[in-house]
Amino acid sequence: MEISTIISLGIYFAVMLGIGLFSYRQTDTSVEGYMLGGRQLGPAVTALSAGASDMSGWMLMGLPGAMYVSGISSGWIAVGLVAGAFANYILVAPRLRIYTEIANNAVTLPDYFENRFADNSRLLRVIASVVIVIFFTLYTSSGVVAGGKLFESSFGLSYETGLYVTTGVVVAYTLFGGFMAVSITDFVQGCIMFVSLVMVPVVVIMELGGFGQAVDAVSTINPQLFDPFTDADSGEALSLIGIVSLLAWGLGYFGQPHIIVRFMAIRSVGDVPTARRIGMSWMIVSIIGALMTGLFGLAYVTANSNTIDPETIFIHLSQLLFHPFIGGFLLAAILAAIMSTISSQLLVTSSSLTSDFYQAFLRRDASDKELVLAGRGSVILVALVSIYLAYDRDSTILSLVSNAWAGFGAAFGPLVLFSLFKRDMTRRAALGGMIVGAVTVLLWIYLPFTIGGESLSSWMYEIVPGFILSSLTIIILSKSGTPREGVVDVFDAFSAKLTEFKK
């Protein structure tokens, strides 16, 4: 590896660790301070940290790779994600910020569910926490695997060394700086991703002779690459159900704990519109850059008679077209995407273990100092389990990310939405909707049934039936019962505060 590349990567790691140290000194010792940054995130940090923790390596590797193989038909998923993210800012962000504070200052999603529905049995908290811990431990492990493979393929280090370096740096700044460190590093990482996804496609287009010639080069390879209704790889037309399945990825946003926790931590409800404008601008430009990297990267690779793994097109172009120092910066962008998601998932999982298990069942009277210490211990525990799982490369494949996204989206998405809009929603409806959504996704993935020779999951993305059945369950069960005492009063107080904000 070029010395310039090593220097640029060293600078990146130093900045991440420096932010962790800064946040450690600035963050107060309360649980709210460690897990939500004291609810003091500014709109820019909120927006970019939510975006960076959301996109992960998918933005720099998965989406360009899909575009490289299938053409712009793979862009339907991007359309769905943009629509879902925008709806999340409109429907969830301001309401959740207000309600979590009113609902006994909830600091985790399970904490909010329990307080919102006055669940003295703590069943809502337990089930939600189990879902978070299991899925996010596996989700985190998939990110660790991506880091290991990146170090192995690009830096000439062993896969195991990559696991420890990636996880070690993330754990270091997450462990000491908590939510504030994770959010600030996500902000920096989001900026790196943004610049990279503008630079790479622009340079590729220039290398091909300009935008018009780049389009002609792609059309020469396969005209179907520009057909949004045809999979250019197979040559088959996309079905309506196929397009709906791709668009349905956007439904997952309403239930992703590592994303919506940013809405709980923003400084004030008045900052949400600014965060939305920043976040959506970042997302749209970044996604377009990722799509163009894959599409025009194909033309460049074909013109130079090379053969590569489609998912490495961003890495290939960054090392081929740029000075080694800049190439190191672009590799850092991939690390940024991976690490930002790992850190967010580590913190959400450790927060759930600390607040929803340790404090709720073991040490109800624990001091803030003890809970912060337990949170840091949980970060290390989850990281170690993730590394252990990552040693088996086949245990955390990319389909797991898709399944986890669907599981969270179906289990928590309808529950979050209805809890913020439906005044008479009951605890039984919340519990039933969460269970039905999660179980539907699992059955849809693993039942040995086929439609037209395809598995249920291949025929339709599992989040669609999961989200629909969870919503129906909530509506039906809410009609057959009444909310617990005090729940409606809290909802009315929330509605009054929301109305005041809108004025």
UniProtKB/TrEMBL annotation:
Membrane topology of this protein: Multi-pass membrane protein
GO biological process: proline transport
InterPro entries, per database record: Na/Glc_symporter_sf, Na/Pro_symporter, Na/solute_symporter, Na/solute_symporter_CS, Sodium:Solute_Symporter
Keywords, alphabetical: Amino-acid transport, Cell inner membrane, Cell membrane, Ion transport, Membrane, Sodium, Sodium transport, Symport, Transmembrane, Transmembrane helix, Transport
Reactions that this protein is recorded to catalyse: L-proline(in) + Na(+)(in) = L-proline(out) + Na(+)(out)
An annotated GO cellular component: plasma membrane
Transmembrane segments: 6-24, 67-91, 123-142, 162-184, 191-215, 235-254, 282-301, 321-342, 371-391, 397-417, 429-447, 459-477
Main location: membrane
Pfam name, any one: SSF
Coiled-coil ranges per UniProt: none
GO MF annotation list: L-proline transmembrane transporter activity; proline:sodium symporter activity; sodium ion binding
Signal peptide (UniProt feature, chain positions): none
Family, similarity comment: Belongs to the sodium:solute symporter (SSF) (TC 2.A.21) family.
Described purpose of this protein according to its UniProt entry: Catalyzes the sodium-dependent uptake of extracellular L-proline.
Listed PANTHER family: SODIUM/PROLINE SYMPORTER-RELATED, SODIUM_PROLINE SYMPORTER
Protein name: Sodium/proline symporter
Species name: Alteromonas confluentis
